[in-house]
Amino acid sequence: MNKPDKVKIILKLLQDSNTLLIKSSQMQNEANIAVIDLIQEYDNSINKKIDLITSPDNNTMFNVRELSLLLKVTKATIYNWISEDKIIFHKLGNKTYFKKFELNDIILRYTK
Hints:
- The chain has 4 helices and 3 strands.
- It is mostly helical.
- The protein has 2 domains: about 55 residues; about 55 residues, Arc Repressor Mutant, subunit A, CATH 1.10.10.
- The chain has a 3-stranded antiparallel beta sheet with strand order 1-3-2.
- The protein is rod-shaped.
């Protein structure tokens, strides 16, 4: 192999190497952006829960479905807590409700 061919091969390898470095850097930037988005989403979720817990409107009431979504547990778990007297609840007809101010400890414990 003559010298000009070796130079061409070396230049091609350098060019390919630079391309890979650029792509790697772009992928790292995209990963960083994705992580930042996840952190912001989590932070927003936490802030909403803090606002809910600390808001002066303690008369807010939740039904079983709403509470299960807030706490990220199943409705069956809520009903188990009721039967085990782990949670204060109120009945209106055949509907079950929970007062926010009676749930603050549980909300803090189970929201993530």
